[in-house]
From TrEMBL:
Organism: marine metagenome
GO molecular function, one term: hydrolase activity
Protein name: Phospholipase/carboxylesterase/thioesterase domain-containing protein
Annotated keywords: Hydrolase, Signal
Keyword Signal: yes
Signal peptide positions on this chain: none
Classification of source organism: unclassified sequences, metagenomes, ecological metagenomes
PANTHER family named among the record's database cross-references: FERULOYL ESTERASE, UNNAMED PRODUCT-RELATED
């Protein structure tokens, strides 16, 4: 995950954004979006890395900013870029339609989407569909995506074997909800 930080500091402002086909996955009665990058170097039982965007961002933006596809090419892992839900209402900090991960912010207290279930279910589906190693599934995220990484590390240690939050924070209630008997390695970049 150190490579992630170093690579993301490279020039990420390109005129043309790289895109991948947007795929959908049904979760909680909602059709959710994600993009999947499978490098030619990937083999059966390759690792799976989830890369989560920040508040107000998108899967396309974090894919281009993080440059994880290039790292995946070099190291042979698959990258999933899920899309957060768009807020249903204006809040103090965000406008209606702003993408986010539901990690329990006070401003999103009326949102009921279960992003933990979405990402867990998507991880299991991808592991099975593409023969990816369930013991090598990881999550990294920027800002609100980093917060979501912490939440997944606490609530889904059976799925995510390590997390790498970038400029994210572990809120008190997330820390309190963690199973102290099932710790997950964390690489924190702030």
């Amino acid at each position: 995950m150190i490579t992630l930080f170093v690579v993301s500091c490279k020039n990420s402002r390109k005129k043309d954004l790289i895109t991948l086909p947007v795929q959908t996955f049904l979760s909680g009665g909602l059709e959710r979006e994600y993009m999947l990058y499978i490098p030619q170097s990937a083999e059966k039982n390759s690792p799976l890395v989830f890369m989560l965007h920040g508040l107000g961002s998108t899967h396309t933006i974090i894919m281009n900013y993080s440059q994880m596809n290039q790292v995946a090419d070099k190291h042979g892992f698959v990258v999933c870029y899920p899309q957060g839900i768009r807020g249903a209402e204006n809040t103090r900090h965000t406008k209606k339609g702003t993408p986010f991960w539901n990690v329990g912010y006070e401003t999103h207290k009326n949102e009921t989407v279960d992003d933990v279930s979405f990402i867990k279910s998507l991880a299991i589906y991808l592991q099975q569909e593409y023969n990816l190693d369930p013991e090598k599934t990881f999550c990294a995220g920027m800002s609100n995506g980093g917060d979501m990484s912490y939440l997944l590390g606490c609530e889904a240690p059976d799925i995510f074997k390590a997390i790498a939050p970038i400029t994210g924070c572990m809120m008190g209630w997330i820390y309190e909800s963690c199973n102290k008997n099932d710790p997950v390695p964390v690489f924190q970049v702030h």
